[in-house]
Amino acid sequence: MGKVFPDAKAALAGLLRDGMMIHSGGFGLCGIPSLLIEAIRDSGVRDLTIVSNNAGIDDAGLGLLLKTRQVRKMISSYVGENKTFAEQFLAGELEIEFNPQGTLAERIRAGGAGIPAFYTKTGVGTEVAKGKPTAEFDGETYVQERGIVADLAIVHAYMGDAEGNLIYRKTARNFNPMMATAAKVTVAQVEHLVKPGELDPDHIVTPGVYVKRMVQCPPGYEKRIEQRTVRRREPAAAGGVA
């Protein structure tokens, strides 16, 4: 069977189960695999552990899975934009494992590289390091962090070919490439699907060997903006060019 599937539901068929761990790419709403998140929501799978930089917002991204209470635990670095997350966490209904953002990125990268653990100074002496092994190197204390390998990674890419090779666009790259390498199965949604050989090999970020299934975003696919900030337009000076 080829790697390209007709829709997100088909691309995830047979992969989802209760209690699994899922890497979900994105930063805020930038570069999130929203089609795949919606298909996970519609599947009804529950008790999920989600590894993601954040928890989306209340009506988009991973916020959709929180709204339906399908998430048991989040492994994240920032969750401040989601009221639903805050309510469930404060009520004891949702577990959170906080990570400094760089530590989270390295834990995922390490998982993809086959590195079971590493040491970092970040978080030493704080709640982040509580219960974790420490060691001294060159007179400094470091805390041990474990690599993360998920059951499933869902990622978003700007372009891909039928072999699964992926190219990302600017900041929408974020956590997607490292997550694509750090799961038993990776499913990608791509904005533009091209034929094999049409991608410049020098521009490919994720080789197709990591990607097992793909789905193309439909025409008119909406990419939400989490916060829009615009500069106030100043009136033209008298006699100037409008």
TrEMBL record:
Which keywords are on file for this protein?
Transferase
GO-annotated molecular function:
CoA-transferase activity
**InterPro entries under this entry?**
3-oxoacid_CoA-transf_A, CoA_trans_fam_I, NagB/RpiA_transferase-like
Domain of life, per UniProt, equals Bacteria
What is the designated name of this protein? Answer: CoA transferase subunit A
What is the species of this protein?
A: Dankookia rubra
